[in-house]
Write a structure and sequence with these properties.
alpha+beta; ph1033 like fold; six-stranded mixed beta sheet; two-stranded antiparallel ribbon; 6 helices; 8 strands; globular; PUA-like_sf; Thymocyte nuclear protein 1; EVE_domain; phosphoprotein; 5hmC_binding
Length: 242
């Protein structure tokens, strides 16, 4: 049986640097330390040239046409380190996913309405970044794909589960989950700090990460990505870390 409460979002807390999501009712209560940095300048080595070079390549590939702004990819947060919630360890790392039968599991325990709606919008075959959250160094570690679209999350009816919801009814369930399957590890770990550096640069020059939800709604554990956001972040795996 899959781990009881790995993917979290009940209130998607920001990460330790952003407590992750399945914490249900704390989404707007825990500050994101990563977002409270005094300095708003991108770290050294995070110049805008990376975005400009990437943009030239994309324009060349697409004949100069801009990508449509639609959400077709996702970012899923999960905690790789042990943490007890109502006596249950909610740890679930990428290694835990890879250890599951067929490297597939359900993404349960989401208890935030916006995150739930994102789950319900997911389509079969869409890809998502697997993001380690609420840990020493948050960031993207792998790619997964949606292998089953939204259906009722059984943990809402389990009184022993830390995400039990006594107000939800089986005839009209409040909460949903999807099934995800491991696709591959990213070529390197892509840390939150590096993504944030590009986000800050893009806010100034109009790059693809300027409105990335990881920074505008950082406490959500389920976040949509545009094609441009997904492609740009994925391109970072080819670069040497700063």
């Amino acid at each position: 049986m899959p781990w009881p409460s790995r993917k979290r979002d009940k209130g998607a807390v920001a990460d330790k640097k952003e407590p992750d999501a399945k914490i249900a009712k704390t989404e707007e209560e825990t500050p994101d330390k990563e977002e409270e940095e005094k300095s708003t300048k991108p770290p050294a080595g995070s110049s805008k040239s990376g975005w400009k070079n990437w943009k030239k390549t994309k324009e060349s590939d697409a004949g100069g046409e801009e990508s449509k702004i639609t959400y077709c990819h996702w970012l899923l947060k999960s905690e790789p380190e042990s943490r007890l919630e109502k006596g249950v360890d909610v740890k679930f790392s990428i290694d835990d996913l890879k250890a599951q039968p067929n490297q597939t599991t359900f993404w349960d325990g989401v208890r935030n309405y916006q995150a739930r709606n994102f789950l319900r919008a997911m389509k079969l075959g869409q890809q998502a970044f697997f993001y380690h959250s609420n840990c020493k160094e948050p960031g993207i570690v792998a790619i997964v794909k949606i292998v089953k679209e939204a259906y009722p999350d059984h943990t809402q009816f389990d009184q022993k589960d830390p995400h039990y919801d006594s107000t939800s009814r089986k005839e009209n369930p409040k909460w949903s989950m999807v099934d995800v399957q491991f696709v591959r590890m990213t070529k390197r770990f892509i840390p939150l700090s590096e993504i944030k550096a590009h986000h800050l640069a893009h806010k100034a020059d109009g790059g693809p990460l300027k409105n990335m939800m990881l920074f505008t709604r950082q406490r959500l554990s389920i976040q949509p990505l545009t094609q441009e956001e997904f492609d740009f972040v994925l391109s970072l795996e080819e670069e040497k870390p700063h």
